[in-house]
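Hey all, quick one. A colleague (J.T.) asked me to put the zinc ion job into the tracker so the inputs and the structure tokens live in one place instead of scattered across chat threads. No bug as far as I know, just bookkeeping. Sequence used:
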Amino acid sequence: MSLNKNNAEEKVVRVRSDESGLIEVDCPLCGSNRSKKLFDVKDWTLHCDDRVFSLRRCSECGCGYLSPRPPENEMSLYYPPRFYWSYEGVSREIDWPAIVQNRSRQLKSKAAWLKDLPPGRLLDIGAMKGEFLWFMQQKGWVVEGVELDNNVPNPAKMPIHYGDFLKMDFSQNYYDVITFWAVLEHVYHPVPFIEYASRLLKPGGRLVVLVTNLNSVQARFYRADDYPRHLTVFTASSAKAMCKKNGLRIERISTDQNIFGGALNGGLLYAFKHACGSDTEALFNEWKQPEDKHLFWVKWKGRPSELIRTVSRIDKALSLPFEYVLDRFGLGFNMTFSAVKVMTVTS
Ligand SMILES: [Zn+2]
């Protein structure tokens, strides 16, 4: 293994000596080099390549992180257009009323995190097509967004800045609210995003973040995170520590599935298929691929099966009450938290 120290960020990166081209990193949240491997993962969703990554748990702050992982300059390979926007069509084809109607419940659930605030200035990082900006603008908020990918259509012509948030020059102590919906688990170095957002918030301003939760059955046993696109898997305590270091105090945490799906069902069906002879990798491939929704839930080795359909129904019925309880005890798959800026952080 060779060592390459990046002086700008004081991070030690170890390049693996095998043929994979992957690198090993220390904890992206606290910098500790002490960790325990949880399990191996692959890109089961989009199959952008066949490399094997590992999810590790930091022994210091408790968060999960991918190591070995692809080098930062290779991450764009894992984001083909079909990953997050092209399925709704390119600009000229997009039916905006249909998109916001389809996402109506999700948009209302996001807005509920701000319902106690009067309209003010909102900055949404990872704004996609601007649907949340549009929704909050209707409620009187002055909105701005940031989106890394300038190929993502902007049908409602929302004020979205395209490019790297960390290289943009925003006014400090200016925003009432900054939101990150399903963004921080994707970024290579999450802490600088929180540092910068904290500087841009007014004192008393609110940060709202949705990430996935390592302390969930789905993350730990179903390997439900979207690897290698999810590079950091948070916990409530690691999120609290990250916020505290950056002048933010977490006020509320919820692990319900109102904004993004992350249901508990699937485990029983997985166990049943495994007991009947399917191996782990074949099952994760079936479960996570987006093309054929029936492949895992109602088919056996690619063919419709009444037995599998029945086990699916039992699985769903049995998992619902457990899901309800786990979500309410902080053990649901998605974790949303809000934090207040309690002091001004100087650069
Ligand atoms: Zn850590």
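Adding what we noticed when we looked at it: The pocket of zinc ion is lined by residues 27, 29-30, 32, 58, 60-61, 63 (CB under 6 Å). Residues 2-73 form one domain.
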